[in-house]
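hey can u check if this looks right to u? its 240 residues, i copy pasted from the old doc so theres a chance i mangled smth
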Amino acid sequence: LADSRRRAIGYFAEGGQGDDRVEIEEMEEIEALSGPIDVAVVATKATNRRAVLEKLLSRTETRYLVLEKFLFQRDEDYAAAGALLKQNGAAAWVNCPRRLWPGYRELRERLRNAGQIDVHFSAPSHLGIGTSAIHILDTLAFLSGTAQFQLYGGRLDQRLLENRRGGVEFSGTLYGAGASGEGFSYTAQGAAPVLLFLDSARLRLVADESRQQARLSPAENDWAWQDIPFPTLLQSQLTH
């Protein structure tokens, strides 16, 4: 924990805030906090995130929170956390940065008036569907404007995997549909490359995020394939 705090302070300093009035104070306990908080980033394990959230909001007024995913380990934690945030007038987000990547922002412009879209994402099994599917669902929400999904786990592998934080992970295929008929699937198996496949009535696309390249096939170009850049951003390029 001490090393994590020191790294966080170092990252803040690297950001070049350029304001002599900014001071960094290192604390070990929530009880040491005083005064209201504008933004809190809660990056704990999912097993104790609800307890940390309750302790933080009972201690001091907090306006905005960024919560690390996977959010919680129990169904009841979601309702309890939602009620707690509402009671305290706090707003919260999960960090899903793809909607800020230039490649996806340009893709959304291309998809205007393109009708219903289907998205399939492939990845190696070590990425884990449990912790990373939210990113792909958020990408589909960003591209389609739909935020309600029905998901199905009938194609998930029966054997659970261990994740690096001591919990469990899933491989296989998670699939479902959006409220307006959008199709969704996410397959994590073996050493599969990280690829996005998108299909609509007016556009088809295959994107390789790691290479920041995509192949595009638009209807207005008689479905001919063309190579285009698909730029992504590191977290350090998005915000400090």
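The radius of gyration is 20 Å.
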